[in-house]
What we know:
The chain is mainly α. The chain has helices at residues 2-11, 19-31, 35-45, 53-65, 70-84, 89-96. Helix content is 70%, strand content 0%. It is found in: Cell projection, Cilium.
Amino acid sequence: MAQQLFQLVGASTSECDTIPGRQCMASCFFLLRQFEDVLVYLKSIKPYFQNDDDFNWNHGIACAAVGEYKDRRRRRSSRSRARSTGRSSATSAGSRGATP
């Protein structure tokens, strides 16, 4: 049911070339486990979601499903560096507990 509704919205002429329309099509293909198709849509809207954790999670899952590991490792290491600037390791560890 959800897959059909995502497809209905994403394929409509009024939404097919919009960010929400592309998100719907990516969700449709995600539910169908057609991850190559998921990546077609997610890569087309990736510049708009660089700092969105939900988007990056779904993009990472799709990349892993098709064996695209290199892009995910590079992005994670750059995000880790960005988070660590300006904070001492003691402050970071103390404010977030034991999780890295």
